[in-house]
Amino acid sequence: MRKSIFPAAGLTAAALFIAIAPAAEAGQHGRTVRVQGSHGGGYVHDRHVSRQPGAVSVSRGTQTNAGYGVASQRSASWGGGVYSGGASRTLNNGASTNRATSIVNNGDGSYSYSASRTGYNGDTRSVSGVASRP
Q1: How many domains does the chain contain in total?
Q2: Which phi-psi region, left, alpha or beta, contains residue 69 (left: φ > 0; alpha: ψ -120 to 50)?
Q3: Which residues neighbour 12 within 8 Å (Cβ) at sequence distance 6 or greater?
Q4: What is the pLDDT of residue 38?
Q5: What pTM was computed for the model?
Q6: Where does the record place the region Disordered (predicted)?
Q7: Which of the residues 8, 38, 49, 84 has the least number of beta carbons within 10 Å of its own beta carbon?
Q8: Distance of CA 64 to CAs 25, 39, 69, 111, Å?
């Protein structure tokens, strides 16, 4: 009997900590890292984050001294029963991929959703519909 009390107490403490933990601070921050290796090898990587109430966006990029690189962007916003999010990635050669997701609370216990994804080859797949809560 005693063994089951401690896990329950731990879960309760974790739930209490999550409930009273302060929300992430709004604002922007980022950093850039430059690495230079021997024989001319190296890269530059940067990451920037912007947070506002109900929205967040993150951009990242990596560029090597050899000319290879990738840039990516992710963002999400929420509020008023609506969630919208997306991401994209672009390579130095121009190839890109992206995805987008949207969820709307219809107010009657159901949710409308839509999602699409476009691959590097240009093919797009989409799905949408309405789901009800059990």
Answers
A1: 1
A2: beta
A3: none
A4: 82
A5: 0.69
A6: 31-72, 88-134
A7: 38
A8: 32, 13, 6, 44
